[in-house]
From TrEMBL:
Pfam families (UniProt xref): AAA_31
Name under which the protein is recorded: Chromosome partitioning protein ParA
Gene3D superfamilies, sorted: P-loop containing nucleotide triphosphate hydrolases (3.40.50.300)
Taxonomic classification: Bacteria, Pseudomonadati, Pseudomonadota, Gammaproteobacteria, Pasteurellales
Residue intervals of the AAA domain: 12-161
Record InterPro entries: AAA_dom, DNA_Partitioning_ATPase, P-loop_NTPase
Amino acid sequence: MDFSSFSKKPYVITVACTKGGSAKSTNAANIGAFCADHGLKTLLIDTDTQPTLSSYYALTEEAPGGIYEFLSHRDVDPSHIISKTAISNLDLIQSNDPSNNVSPMLRNAPDGAIRFSHLLKSINHYDVIIVDTRGTRDITVDMSVLAADVLFCPILPHILSAKEFIRGTIGMYQDLQTFESFGFKLPPLKAIANCVDNTNDVKFVLNQLNVLFETNFDESKTFLNFSIPAHVAYREAATYALPVYRHNRNEYPVIKELCCLLFPQFKTLFEQSPGEKR
Ligand SMILES: Nc1ncnc2c1ncn2[C@@H]1O[C@H](COP(=O)(O)OP(=O)(O)OP(=O)(O)O)[C@@H](O)[C@H]1O
Ligand SMILES: [Mg+2]
C-alpha cells in the first residue's frame, strides 16, 4: 500500500467503550467534522460491523472497498478503500463486514491484534485519524486501542453503564497492558460523560466516577472535567447527516471544548472560526 506522498504521522484517536449506545459513533462523526472544518485532513475509520459511522455523512465518492480489504489485503490501493464524504477534508474507510468475517480472520492470524497498528503506519497523508469501534469487547477493539495515540471513552452517566465501563473497558485496557512487554505503549485513556442531564441520579453517578478515577486509577486514565449534554440536537443532526454544531450553533462551544481536550496540539487552530482556518 503506498500512501507515501506525505511524510507526517497522523494523530490516531480511538473511540471505544464496551457498553453499547454510549455515543461513540456520534462523537466520532462530530469531532471528525470539527477537525476537517478547521483545515485538518481527517480520516474516519469504521471498525464496527454495524456501520453507524459509515452511514452518518453523505458520500461524494464511494470507494468499492473498506475495512475488510484494509485488514485482509496487504497491498490494497488507497483509492480502493477510502471514500470521500460530503464534508471537505473528511474521508472515510467504511465498515463493509456485516457478516463479521474480520474478527475470526484476525483471531487466527499471528499478528491479529497488532496488524492494524502496522497498517496505519502506511497512512501518512492525514493529520488526524479517528477510529470508531463496536460496543462490546472484540479483537477489533483491542487492535484499535493498540494503534491509538489517545483513547477516548464516552460514558453514559447511568450506574449500569458506569459499572460496565469499569468491568469491560478498564478490564480490556488492563489486559492490553501485556503488550507493553513487547514494546507497545498503551494510549492515555480519556473518559468523558455523555448525554448528561440535570437529574440527581446523573450527579450521583458523575461523583462516583470522579472518586473512582481519583482514588483507584493512575495518571494514564483521566475522567475529564467536562461533559456533553443530553440534547435532541445530537439526534436531529444525525437525521440531517450534519455535524451537530452545524445543525445547531449552540453545540459549537461543546464540540470545540471537546476537541481542545482531545487534541491539545491543535487548540490554537480550533480557537479560530472555521472561516479563518489555515
Ligand atoms: N449528546 C447526546 N444527546 C442526546 N442523544 C445523543 C447524544 N449523543 C448521542 N446521542 C444519541 O444516542 C444514540 C446512540 O448514539 P451512538 O450510535 O453514537 O452510540 P454508539 O456508542 O456508537 O452505539 P453502538 O455501541 O451501538 O455503536 C443515538 O441515537 C444518538 O443520536
Ligand atoms: Mg457506534
